[in-house]
Structure to design on (1314 residues):
């Protein structure tokens, strides 16, 4: 084989690649199905771990098997480690849909990866709390792009044997945290910069932060400086929630940001761990099931979305993960599994959730129409996060 | 023997320490597999065989094992064909660029898996290739070829060429000679090469993560994901232990087939 | 076949079509596409790469943002450290296997080294994770001495676990190259008046060196690219972590550009290793 | 019609970047050096190695023909070109009137006995011998008869089921012979087939080979570097040097009338008289050779006969060889001659005591032969 032949082949590959690459159009199609057809045999989902349980850990929590039995759609799931990974998996085009947080849904809608959903085909949609419908993170131009799964805040967890008095603010993980040096557990993704920004909204009003996800240079620098101080105070970053669970269980961690899910797991093992929502408010999530515009199994996906709004499935899933159910019916069901669940998660308490900043994607245009303002985009956040944790 | 007694004793101790180092984590793994507690706490609180039953009944584990077996078998088959062809061409022909071939073949295993993984994933995405078992197989075959190639070329180097010439001399054409003389000479090299390629594929995780499609989780992928889920750790203990024990099979077989030859990493 | 008749060219082409087609087109093609991605722009919001929108932004970031340099240096230092550690541990055992152990012991030791090599990678990393983490065996062993366990956030964990993982990859090539040294050479050396020390330094070491280099290809390259081990046993970032994070966190061009670094390092490493005769010892 | 005709056969190895002579070619590639010029474009260090530099040769049907020469003289390469393992750079190979230059080995009516025998290790003796018949699709009954015949001819009846690994060197050699002969080739090529055997076995096999050749009546082309072997067995032989034939003739021709200095030296012991000493002793300029066994050692005072040449000198070294003793004599006229004397009545003590003695050498003038410089 001559060298020139090899190079020629490579060039050809590159050209074909380029041709295919430019062919993709970001325009979303607005062709929504008018009915749900016959179920296909399979359904491929991207999920947050714990969003599709088969009763393998606790037989009482199984909302996948009934769905499979009922519809014949065999469910395959892939966990996403972060919203960005979820976006990337979704863009591979291999999945029918997934459960995405706000910082994924906005990008998926913008890139046209996901399709609008004809909610009139979903019988359980009518029951959903109005406060969860037609929000910025799950709709565009008044058209629904998915259905809600559940919502919850990122909480402050603490070991009750070490932190004897329940904290009411985030201070213990920021300035006031020196007594817990090296034992502060921090969510290990760039989204956590927003948590710093929320703290700054309280402590440094001069920065005029109005949205913790859209930060201009000065605001951003202040947030990063705060995070650096926290790092130097011995923050331990968790990438998978099992890191955090084993850290708390082992006593290596005593306080930090968490999800209700980990707290439930730790409490189930008898660990002295509690969680609170501090007064400043918090970041949080309101997750949405979305369907890929070219889903290979659209009927199964529609059936799944409807299933996940049913009282049984939503009740189980939200109790399992420790988040708020999405309908009164689900709330009722959830109470049978875990009494007091809806109050605990403030399922109907819109005032409570007004203090929660749902995850969103940082954008160069600040996600507003004011051309004069510029903000740090996702790449800048990722880079800052790499600098923070990598050096 | 040029080594003094003291040197020999010191080497014996160093060897014993190194072997203990190699086996210590595997022993801990084995102990944890029988630990009844869901959490990993040392020392173990008791003894149970229960997790083995749970692992055996876990449908995700079973699916992952099947996927791993399939991917390994397919990747090994491709690697056997490509590796043998390449080794035969390099060892038995002279041509321009011959020296570069071994370099090209060793690249996929010498370059970091994360690079190979991203490159393949980006390429598949660009061409709209559906991710699934086949994309895993393509990734695995790419780095398994060199294992077969190294095994076969080492054998070809040792095989005298005169029997092939004798075969041609006695009237056999190239294909007949290859089938009746060359191939039988390479048989054990192919077996041990194939075995090691299979073991490598069965164990690979980084490239697999990048090339897997929905529903095609392999067993190492399952472990990786399960490590992130504390509730599954007892089952991870068991699966990990079983995988470690299973690695005896290729080692033992390769040793039997090739005698001392398998001492070298890849041949 | 050594005879050269007119169909030879065609035979060669048929033989090479498969392997070259696969590795030359699929593999190198994939690397080329990755390389192209390093020069392309991505949408700052959706993270999508736009083909043929040429830019050097990714390289600009790599050069201007200090952390990428820090991580690159850290990774290379770690690779050197792990390689050196493994060479130091591996040489005595390889020497013992090749020169001192009886045939029977040698066979057993070869198997004893091969088995952990082929044992599942993740199982081994996971085993270390269970050992190191709080309330694990390591803490339990250290507690009586009043030493605290390292926990899962020490960079030293990465060094320890990577050295463990790649140790068999170092032992076997060294063993193979030591075993190939004929005993008569060592006898000749002592016959000519060399003491054990000089025989070791002047005969054994130079002949075993290609084996060390061959082993170092594995220890070095595997360390250079691993991101799972650092992720599971520490919270330190290495080149692999940055590539992985960026490939999924939406800056594929940056991941692609950063990939070129380990690729370049390994290609140079391989060329040097080949020159040192390490490929024969692989 | 000759059995084989070689016309202007030339073989270069290498000469292109990155190429080297193949290792499998035995003595073919080494040692000759690129004196005859590299191929165009080759850089100095990649210059082509000229293994065969122009061979013209006719070999008669039914003849036992030997190619004799040192390592790297081109004899094996020539044989491999006849077999079809190497393709000549230039020239033609004609086998029984048919040009086979471009044919692969399996389309030529010749068979080879390899230096290392090249038995198939995974086949039994019977399968080895039957191989050529099997790939040529000879029906099984006939195959069995012919294999049995061939094994009988080499005295290996009953060894069909053995594996090559279970045979001695001599037996393997005979299997290789049977495997080639069973195909009834018109020409059998033998590449130093006795090289791996010990002396005694080699001498036995020489006789046996010659007997078999006479029995089957086909052309044998025999490559060897052992002059004795070539002289013993051949009808005719060619002496190869530096890729060329230096002399072609019957064993007696070559031994008694070496055409060149090289042949004189390679076949037998080199005993040369040159320059001044030649003029003084023989009486004419040029180079002359005398075979050591033709020279007599006599008293220095003795008078040589009219048909005898004569020279005086001192015995510098005595080598006792058992049946013979070899004396190395430094001539007064310059140069040295080796003299071999049978130890008919001489004891070793006597022979060794001759060292340092002044002697006269005489030989029949017809025994000193002029040789070219080759």
């Amino acid at each position: 084989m001559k060298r020139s032949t090899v190079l020629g082949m490579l060039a050809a590959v590159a050209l074909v690649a380029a041709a295919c690459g430019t062919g993709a159009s970001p325009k979303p199609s607005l062709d929504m199905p008018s009915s749900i057809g016959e179920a296909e045999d399979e359904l491929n989902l991207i999920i947050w771990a714990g969003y599709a349980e088969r009763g393998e850990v606790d037989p009482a929590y199984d909302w996948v098997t009934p769905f499979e039995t009922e519809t014949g759609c065999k469910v395959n799931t892939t966990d996403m480690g972060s919203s960005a990974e979820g976006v990337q998996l979704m863009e591979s085009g291999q999945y029918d849909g997934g459960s995405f947080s706000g910082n994924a849904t906005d990008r998926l809608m913008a890139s046209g990866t996901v399709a609008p959903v004809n909610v009139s085909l979903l019988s359980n949609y009518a029951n959903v709390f109005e406060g969860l419908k037609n929000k910025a993170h799950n709709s565009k131009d008044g058209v629904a792009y998915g259905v809600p799964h559940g919502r919850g805040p990122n909480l402050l967890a603490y070991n009750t044997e070490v932190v004897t008095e329940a904290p009411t603010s985030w201070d213990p993980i920021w300035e006031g945290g020196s007594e817990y040096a090296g034992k502060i557990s921090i969510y290990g993704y760039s989204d956590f910069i927003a948590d710093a920004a929320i703290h700054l909204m309280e402590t440094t009003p001069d920065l005029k932060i109005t949205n913790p996800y859209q930060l201009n240079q000065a605001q951003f620098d202040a947030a990063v400086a705060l995070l650096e101080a926290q790092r130097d105070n011995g923050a331990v970053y968790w990438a998978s929630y099992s890191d955090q669970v084993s850290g708390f269980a082992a006593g290596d961690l005593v306080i930090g940001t968490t999800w209700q899910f980990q707290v439930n797991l730790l409490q189930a093992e008898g660990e002295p761990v509690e969680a609170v929502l501090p007064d400043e408010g918090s970041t949080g999530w309101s997750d949405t099931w979305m369907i890929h515009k070219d889903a290979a199994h659209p009927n199964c996906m529609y059936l799944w979305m409807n299933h996940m709004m049913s009282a049984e499935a939503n009740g189980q899933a939200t109790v399992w993960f420790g988040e708020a159910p999405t309908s009164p019916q689900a709330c009722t069901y959830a109470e049978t599994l875990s009494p007091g669940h809806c109050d605990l998660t403030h399922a109907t308490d819109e005032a409570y959730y007004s203090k929660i900043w749902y995850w969103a994607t940082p954008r160069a245009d600040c996600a507003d129409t004011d051309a004069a303002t510029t903000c740090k985009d996702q790449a800048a956040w990722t880079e800052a996060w790499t600098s923070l944790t990598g050096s | 023997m040029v080594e003094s007694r003291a040197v020999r004793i010191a080497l014996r101790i160093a060897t014993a320490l190194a072997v203990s180092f190699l086996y210590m984590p595997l022993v801990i793994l084995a102990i944890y597999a029988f630990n009844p507690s869901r959490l990993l706490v040392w020392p173990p609180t008791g003894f149970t065989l229960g997790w083995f039953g749970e692992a055996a009944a876990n449908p995700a584990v079973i699916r992952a094992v099947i996927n791993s077996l399939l991917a390994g078998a397919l990747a090994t088959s491709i690697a056997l064909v490509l590796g043998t062809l390449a080794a035969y061409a390099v060892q038995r022909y002279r041509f321009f660029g011959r020296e570069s071939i071994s370099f090209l073949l060793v690249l996929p295993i010498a370059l970091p898996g994360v690079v190979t993984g991203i490159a393949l994933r980006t390429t598949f995405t660009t061409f709209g290739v559906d991710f699934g078992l086949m994309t895993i197989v393509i990734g695995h075959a790419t780095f398994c070829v060199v294992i077969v190639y190294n095994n076969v070329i080492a054998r070809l180097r040792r095989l005298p060429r005169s029997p092939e010439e004798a075969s041609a001399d006695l009237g056999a054409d190239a294909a007949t000679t290859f089938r009746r003389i060359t191939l039988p000479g390479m048989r054990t090299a192919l077996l041990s090469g194939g075995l090691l390629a299979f073991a490598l594929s069965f164990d690979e995780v980084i490239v697999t993560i990048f090339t897997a499609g929905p529903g095609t989780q392999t067993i190492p992928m399952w472990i990786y994901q399960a490590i992130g889920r504390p509730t599954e750790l007892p089952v991870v203990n068991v699966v990990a232990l079983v995988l470690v024990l299973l690695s005896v099979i290729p080692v033992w077989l390769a040793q039997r087939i090739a005698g001392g030859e398998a001492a070298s990493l890849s041949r | 076949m050594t005879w050269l008749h007119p169909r030879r060219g065609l035979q060669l082409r048929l033989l090479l079509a498969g392997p070259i087609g696969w590795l030359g087109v699929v593999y190198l093609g994939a690397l080329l596409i990755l390389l192209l991605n390093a020069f392309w722009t991505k949408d700052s919001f959706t993270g999508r790469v736009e083909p043929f929108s040429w830019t050097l932004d990714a390289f600009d970031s790599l050069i201007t943002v200090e952390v990428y340099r820090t991580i690159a240096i850290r990774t290379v230092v770690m690779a050197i450290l792990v390689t050196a550690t493994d060479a130091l541990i591996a040489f005595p055992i390889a020497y013992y296997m090749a020169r001192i152990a009886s045939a029977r012991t040698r066979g057993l030791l070869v198997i004893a080294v091969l088995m952990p090599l082929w044992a599942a990678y993740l199982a081994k990393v996971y085993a270390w994770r269970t050992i190191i983490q709080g309330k694990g065996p390591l803490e339990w062993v250290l507690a009586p001495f009043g030493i605290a366990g390292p926990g899962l956030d020490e960079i030293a964990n990465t060094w320890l676990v990577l050295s463990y993982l790649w140790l068999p990859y170092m032992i076997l090539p060294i063993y193979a190259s030591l075993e190939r040294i004929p005993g008569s050479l060592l006898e000749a050396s002592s016959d000519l008046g060399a003491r054990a020390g000089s025989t070791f330094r002047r005969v054994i070491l130079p002949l075993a060196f290609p084996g060390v280099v061959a082993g170092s290809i594995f220890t070095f390259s595997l360390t250079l690219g691993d991101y799972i081990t650092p992720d599971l046993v520490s919270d330190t970032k290495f080149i692999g972590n940055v590539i992985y994070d960026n490939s999924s966190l939406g800056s594929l061009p940056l991941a692609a550009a950063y990939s070129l670094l380990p690729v370049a390092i390994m290609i140079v490493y391989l060329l040097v290793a080949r020159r040192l005769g390490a490929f024969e010892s692989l | 019609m000759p059995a084989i005709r070689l016309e202007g056969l030339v073989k270069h190895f290498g000469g292109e970047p990155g190429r080297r002579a193949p290792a499998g070619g035995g003595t073919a590639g080494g040692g000759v050096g690129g004196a005859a010029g590299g191929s165009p474009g080759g850089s100095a260090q990649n210059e082509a190695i000229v293994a065969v530099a122009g061979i013209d040769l006719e070999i008669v049907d039914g003849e036992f023909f030997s190619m004799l020469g040192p390592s790297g003289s081109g004899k094996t390469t020539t044989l491999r070109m006849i077999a079809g393992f190497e393709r000549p750079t230039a020239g033609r190979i004609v086998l029984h009137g048919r040009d086979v230059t471009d044919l692969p080995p399996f389309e030529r009516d010749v068979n080879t006995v390899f230096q290392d025998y090249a038995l198939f290790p995974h086949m039994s003796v019977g399968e080895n011998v039957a191989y050529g018949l099997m790939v040529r699709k000879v029906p099984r009954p006939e195959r069995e008869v012919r294999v049995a015949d061939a094994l009988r001819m080499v005295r290996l009846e009953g060894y069909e089921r053995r594996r090559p690994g279970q045979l001695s060197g001599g037996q393997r050699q005979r299997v290789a012979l049977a495997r080639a002969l069973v195909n009834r080739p018109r020409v059998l090529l033998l590449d130093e087939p006795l090289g791996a055997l010990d002396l005694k076995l080699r001498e036995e096999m020489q006789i046996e080979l010659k007997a078999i050749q006479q029995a089957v009546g086909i052309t044998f082309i025999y490559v060897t570097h052992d002059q004795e072997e070539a002289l013993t067995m051949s009808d005719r032989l060619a002496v190869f040097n530096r890729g060329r034939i230096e002399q072609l003739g019957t064993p007696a021709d070559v031994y008694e009338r070496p055409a060149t200095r090289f042949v004189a030296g390679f076949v037998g012991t080199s005993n040369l008289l040159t320059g001044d000493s030649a003029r003084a002793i023989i009486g004419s300029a040029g180079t002359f050779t005398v075979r050591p066994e033709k020279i007599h050692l006599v008293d220095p005072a003795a008078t040589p006969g009219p048909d005898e040449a004569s020279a005086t000198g001192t015995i510098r070294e005595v080598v006792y060889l058992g049946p013979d003793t070899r004396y190395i004599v430094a001539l007064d006229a310059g140069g040295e001659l080796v003299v071999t004397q049978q130890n008919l009545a001489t004891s070793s003590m006597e022979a060794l005591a001759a060292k340092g003695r002044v002697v006269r050498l005489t030989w029949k003038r017809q025994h000193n032969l002029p040789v070219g410089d080759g």
Summary: Strands of chain C lie at 40-42, 49-54.
